[in-house]
Amino acid sequence: MQKTLIKFGFYAFLIVGIHYFAAMRAGAYFDPFYLRFTTGQHHSMILGTSRAAQGILPEVLNQELGETYTEIGNFGFTAANSPYGEVYSKAIWQKLDTANQTKKNLFIVTADPWAICTKNNPTDDVMKYRENGLFLDNMKSIGKVGKPNYEYLTKGYAESWGKILYRPVTTKHRMCLHEDGWLEVNVPMNASAVQTRTNSKIISYENLLTDFSLSINRLAQLEQLISNLKKHGEVVMVRLPTSAGIKIIEDKLMPDFDKKMCIMAHKYSVKYWSFMNILSEYEYTDGSHLYKGSGRKISYEIAQIVRDNKASDCTH
Amino acid sequence: MLFNSIEFLIFLPTTFILYWLLKDKIKWQNLFILAMSYIFYGWWDVRFLGLIVLSSVVDYTIGLYLHQSEKLSKRKLLLATSLVVNLGLLGFFKYYNFFVDSFVDAFSMLGITMNTSSLNIILPVGISFYTFQTLSYTIDIYRKKMQPTQNPIAFFAYVGFFPQLVAGPIERASNLLPQFFEKRTISPTLISDGLRQILWGMFKKIVIADNCAVIVDAVFSDYGSHNSTMLVVAAVLFAFQIYGDFSGYSDIAIGTAKLFGFKLMTNFSVPYFSLNVTDFWRRWHISMSAWFRDYVFDPLLFHYRDWGQKTLYAVTFVTFILIGFWHGGNWTFIVFGFLQALALSVEIATMKKRRKFKRSKSKWLRLYYLGSWLLNMLFWLVGCVIFRSYSIGDSWQYFKNIASSNFLQITHYQKDILILIPIIIITLVIEWYNRDKSHQLDIERLRPVFRHSIYLFLIALMFFFAKYSSNTFIYFQF
Fold first, then answer.
1. Which of A46, A254, B393, B431 is the most buried (most CB within 10 A)?
2. Cβ–Cβ of B455/A163 closer than 8 Å?
3. Is B67 inside any structural domain?
4. Is some CB atom of chain B closer than 8 A to the CB atom of A158?
5. What interface predicted TM-score (ipTM) does this complex get?
6. Where are the alpha helices (DSSP H) in B208-227?
7. Distance between CA atoms of residues A252 and A245, nearest Å
């Protein structure tokens, strides 16, 4: 019996040991969300889906606005994980540090039609929301400081732990999640590669048109979020630009999206800026997401809007 | 809690140590197992406990009264009560919305619109399994095949026994319940064997099933966007997903039970090497098919035996449609069951000819066996597509897309498929090599260096390919 228990102990130690080793190695390159759960709470935040995650650089905002506003972090995920709703709101409140600061807090709330739509859910049943049961819904350690965050690694990380060890080598030049939450994506940006990715994205978005519909609940949740965030700082609503092809699809999905956002911004006395009228000025990795150079540019422009206290862009 | 979760990794060794500290104290061990089983089950949702307790109380009580009563009418009434309560619970939680929706659809076809609403009913995990388990108890007492137990703790522990509570094997009272009255023993051999079986089950679940699931889910949820090759590949991968998932769970359940000195029945016996549908159902989900054989097929066959050969066909259809329906409230499962019955009927009709051919020792025999196996697997894949589809319409469209699209190339997940193929082949080779053993990682006979190499190889595969984020077992939905 002793021999059996010793052998079992060896294997248990080996299994626990390699997992612990992998967990300690988890960092910026193996997963697009992990570091957001190891960097503690933020006073100021960038919110939204993957467009926000990739398209707005906290580093630029902090550099331009750091004298007036608290340090900002990026807390955008994907259209599957962080559309506006109870789940995302709950996660935001876990991540937000509401302790009083000498500087003001700033919240860049990005919005697009997909983030306030529901999928295959004509009755807008909240029980059928796509983010239900995903990691933002299940995690309790969202505001945790320090690595490793085992909760995310077991509930949110969708790959094998072995990949934590070798993925940084294979993806180092493709994806990097910075500690401030910005997801840097490096992909070939020659015209042919961009066109291929854009065409593929357009086809997949077109296929989704029939599945997605406006969610009144999500709209209400977004309103409530803005109303609550206003109590803790300044809120700026932003619609990030996309390529022309994606814009056409989004206009089909929700032609009055900007109008809805303007009404909401007016109601809560916050700014709303849509960059969709100047979308050709920017570079996109796939038509939907800003490439890092353009992300940097738009981050400067957002900083300018905030610093210069520019009025809402509500000419719709 | 899931078997492949951190909580279970803490739960199991804790339960194991405390359980064996109560060695030789059978009553205390039973009570402890009952408590831990309820903790295990309540971890899903504490409300579920009420149902399993209700089912246990009803059948324990009915069992006692059944044994005391000699009057046939009273015995029938008691049995009917057990059936109504258990099947009523199952029917309500599992099939209410199906019946409502089917009712509405049927009337809408006649041009009548009905205003009804489906309920948001949470399906209690494992209800299909433990209700059948308790029913087997009352039915066997009714048939006077066994006597009821006077020990409620042992009975409740038998119903709620955590290793097999949520996804089987569906244990018969005559097999499992007596073990709660016997002294359980543990030995290094039993621990090693149990842990090996758990390792094998975990490997099938978290490496094969979960990796297949990624591709299967992506293709089935958007089959219109994929070519024929991808659709066929997804169907094949689903066959391995469901096998890895379900047989993996069974192996973990059986291996875990061994750690506590219990012997559960074998639930899978290398089904993907079966040569025909009849053989397949003797190897796939054995506990369920045996349950339907003993409590549906055989009684109906006996009752209607005067109809002659027609009875056999009719009862086959009834049994397999019920088997299909057992899997869930969707017409896809009913059609799945119907097709299985159809194939079995063909095999019944051709049985004499096939036996004659096999006895003839023809030079074409090997080709015949190969052809039988291929046809059987092809039929199973067709069944898998229907089983996995969200609706009959979806499955029909899936087949149409296979036929109308092109077979040129694998367009997505090439790397994942390339990794999965050798892993699946290795698994099949191991399963074939150990097909006559109690489980497919029963490798005690190998030299230690080979045994430990295999363990390390499986652990390495799990480390590099397993997905740990909450992937539930498919059969939990049943």
1. A46
2. no
3. yes
4. yes
5. 0.77
6. 210-220
7. 11
